[in-house]
Design brief:
With about 45 residues, the chain is mostly helical. The protein starts with 7 loop residues before the first helix and ends with a helix. The protein has one domain (about 5-45). It has two helices and no strands.
Length: about 45
């Protein structure tokens, strides 16, 4: 996620990451967080 330079895909990515956090529980899982970051980065570069 590139912050202020966000593109339309990034907002949806943020929702996806939040959903993953809820699925993984309050604390979440580092592996899934990394996966979300990689996914967001790919969306941002697409």
């Amino acid at each position: 996620v590139k912050g202020d330079n966000a593109v339309p895909g990034v907002s949806g990515c943020s929702v996806w990451q939040i959903a993953k956090d809820h699925i993984d529980g309050f604390v979440g899982n580092i592996a899934h967080r990394v996966q979300a970051i990689v996914f967001c980065d790919r969306v941002d570069k697409a």
